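Now for today's protein:

——
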Amino acid sequence: MMSVLQIRRSEKDILQSRAAEIQREIQLGERKIFSEVLDLSSGDLHAGGIKPITFVRQVLAACSYPALLEDQSLPSDVRRRAEDLLKECEGGSVGSYSESSGMVKIRECVCEFISRRDGGVSSSPDNIFISTGSQTALMKLLTVLIRPEDSCRTGVLVPEPGYATFRLALQAQRAAIIPYQLCEDQGWTLHIQELRRALQGATHTCTPAAIYICNPGNPTGHIQSRTSIEEVIRFAAEEKLFILADEVYQDCVFADDAEFVSYKKVLSEMESPISSTVELASFHSASKGFMGECGLRGGYVELVNVDPAVQKYIQTLFSTRSCPPVPGQIALQLMADPPKPGDPSFPAFTKEVQSIRHVVCRNVRQIQEVCRELPGVRCQPLKAGFFVYPRLQIPPKAIKWAKEHQMKADMLYCMRLLEEEGLHVRPGCEYGQAEDTYHIRLFVGTQADTMEAALQRLKTFHTRFLEDFS
């Protein structure tokens, strides 16, 4: 209980609360220079105005209301998919419970997706656990790895910058966070020497048990090379670390010179005994690809090389809840097995996905162009994921003011941007960053007109911010 009470209120929560207050003030008639708060803080495509993919929603609708199966206006592959999915539901209803690890047929479908992705590497449904979003599966694994009752705390290597919610979960479970820095000047590269430095500095204060990897990166937008992944796997083998590979942005690769390669694929191609002994958990979700179905809460974890006794315990742990939401499971099945060439829905599905990709790529270009124009701002190229993460050169007077008010300088920047221009973005201090560096994170998955308005507000504010603290 004490570890939960010690978690401080995050910058995200403070900014979200104030953004909601400002929006209410506008609705109550308070005069401001903007008519609404523009939100580039989250990773939610649909909240950003991107329309859901038609095929996905048609199947979900027919599963939720089976009378639609008689509607001949729905494409035949939609009706066929919904019929097949309903056969897997008890009583033919998505309102029924499923197996606690998820429906077998859907886990089998996920296995086929993984095998196709990895060039034929085998996958078993017994190693797949569907969950209420990939984040829930990640938190479940932490309860297995972390031993809060031990006098010497369990340590987990965590990237900086890195996924903020994961850090909070580690704090809640009394784990020791072992930060390792990604190299910004080299496109947020992960250097094995940095992992060794971080681990060496932690061996006297905790018992290192795992390494967390976010690839593609959030908030950094980088993607690991095959060589880098091999180095991490060898490091994990040497140090007997469990690899937690958060790969939820694997379908969102934009750079022509970048390719997503899974940790499982690389591990499977390495020599024995590494390929058969390094323990790995890989996470994916229906939320973070171009489907963007965040609210349906469909995610999974695949376990690789996990000791059978431990896996049996994990199975028991997942069975302590009723089941993951069935609509979320269906969303996972649609992600894993989208329409194929020749299917009636394939042309429209492909066009919609390409349209979303086009909007995101255009937004990325616009943000990076604006960053190049703004004095004291520089940004590494976005190669994958949904976030641009520019670095700010904040004036010394602003840093001093923020310190006097017990605030990080980039939090000051974000709060003033929200108050003065109604633009909601996240500060780099939320994700961990090198000393004396400051960043902001901007979501790229929003409508074009919203992005243009947001960037105009950013340019106006940035100039004024520098003048105020010159």
Notes: The first helix runs from residue 2 to 5.
